Amino acid sequence: xxxxxxxxxxxxxxxxxxxxxxxxxxxxxxxxxxxxxxxxxxxxxxxxxxxxxxxxxxxxxxxxxxxxxxxxxxxxxxxxxxxxxxxxxxxxxxxxxxxxxxxxxxxxxxxxxxxxxxxxxxxxxxxxxxxxxxxxxxxxxxxxxxxxxxxxxxxxxxxxxxxxxxx
Length: 167
Description:
This protein has a 5-stranded parallel sheet, sandwiched between helices. Helix content is 34%, strand content 14%. By secondary structure, it is of the alpha/beta class. It has helices at 14-24, 39-49, 57-61, 73-85, 129-145; strands spanning 5-10, 29-35, 52-53, 66-69, 89-92. It is built from 5 helices and 5 strands; from the N terminus they run E-H-E-H-E-H-E-H-E-H.
């Protein structure tokens, strides 16, 4: 049996605790550490959540392979970037940043939709990237957070040399 994957929680307010509780209901996942600037809130959250209280963001980022960023909106970008720069898997509670320019993000696999394949045509992949990859993200989020109440999505054709939207 493998050890559970450790998560670091940045932000321990009401929503941070909810996201952490949802994540650790997943088999093979545990909350390893938490961080918030206020030392009393940090100690209380660590005791309540059963994890290590990291004394700094850098201290939290030393250990777990994945980080939940559930801070006030203005801190999302810097916190997520610091985690990503250290090679961590990062979940950012929305919005990912305060502006569209700062929120450039991508989830992709190596390569691209190859011209001439079934994935490159609207007729054989009418949902484009949402049905190819995005559905897995929706499944994961619903497993962690419960059924969706409302959804919104958008697609665009930005890079691939195929007729379907690629992002």
